Amino acid sequence: MPNASDAFVHVAIKCPICQRESRQRYLKSKLYTPVEVEGDMHVVKYSWESPVYAGIRPNFYHLWHCPHCRFTDEKEVFRGEDDCGGKLELIREKILIYSKAPNSLITRLGKAIAFDQLFFTLETALCIHLLAIYLQEMLSANMRQHGKLARFYLRLAWLFREKRSWPVPERDVPPPFASYSDFFASMQQDWPAIPLQEEAAIDAAIANYQEELGHSRRVDDIRFEINIMFLLADLHARRDRLDDAIACTRHIFQQANRKRQITRQALDAAVNKGKATSQEIENMRTLVNWLNNVVDRTSALNEELANRIFDREYPRAREAVLAMAQPTPDNIMARLRELKFHEITCQRLATMMRQKMLRQGDAPTEVAMESKGFLSFMIRRLFRDKGAS
Ligand SMILES: [Zn+2]
User: Fold this and answer.
1) How far is the CA of 66 from the centre of ligand 1 (A)?
2) pLDDT at 102 over 60
3) How far is the CA of 73 from the centre of ligand 1 (A)?
4) Count of CB atoms within 10 A of residue 24's CB?
5) Exposure of 268 by Cβ count < 10 A (0-12 exposed, 13-18 middle, 19+ buried)?
6) Are the C-beta atoms of residues 195 and 155 closer than 8 Å to each other?
7) pLDDT at residue 380 greater than cutoff 70
8) Where do the domains of the chain lie?
């Protein structure tokens, strides 16, 4: 029978900053498979090779941490496969100064990390992630690796979410604080933008992903761009910025459609002229299939977002319509726009009236369901009209 501690592989490795050796851990790769994943890639449920491992939280162990100088980053940096985009020297200079200062934020966060414990607590994982972010943000804004920061902030958001979803009593709270929340809040003086809950971490992840999209050389890679845009749509929706989320889906739809058209033409030309290799043709076919899937996924997501806006506004909008003397579709549009309802709500209610579907006592979802086919058509049209403007 395996033991939970067998889940880890330990390696002795030299720190790329202070050159001292430490023992790092990672989880054996074939131990688990994600079975339930949220829209922002957070894994809610894993399937484990053995039930003895079920209490392990893989997210806690993603980053490596040097207990000597407090350097914290992805394992690739420790292994010398990533030099922090050429900024490792700059980070080294700063760490070597601040990790010696007894009251520096690096020292305070570092001391709170129970690195010797085989199983990290969620709070240790939070400290590790905050430290990794803080170290990257010591670089001036134009020197930062936004892709890396975006990933770190997203992971931090997952940890805050897990802390709320699966609460466990806190252990080893650093004195003199009553809770880790107080401990983290005490750092605001040195780090005014320190994220103290999931929402702030998500906002920082969004800002960094947007920077990354604006600057990365990888934006030529359509899969990379679209995957980030899907992630941004999910993150905006989590923050209840549904219009921003819809704007992302619209962008994905346009990009995917355009690329699909170009690729299909190239594929036809390649097949007709017979100049492309079979591998090139196969790659183009794979891309077209992937883009078909993206377009379907985008439409479904867009409809889901529109439904959220509509379901929320429906009871009030319905009251407004029922109070009208002459609720013709045109009058409904004008009145609801005047009352500052979302364009989606205005269009849908006018459509429903047009279809004589507005009956007292209809639940919004029932109404939405009844006119689903037409609504899909409306959404697609709205989508196209907005995209063209
Ligand atoms: Zn070190």
Assistant:
1) 5
2) yes
3) 11
4) 22
5) exposed
6) no
7) no
8) 4-215, 224-388
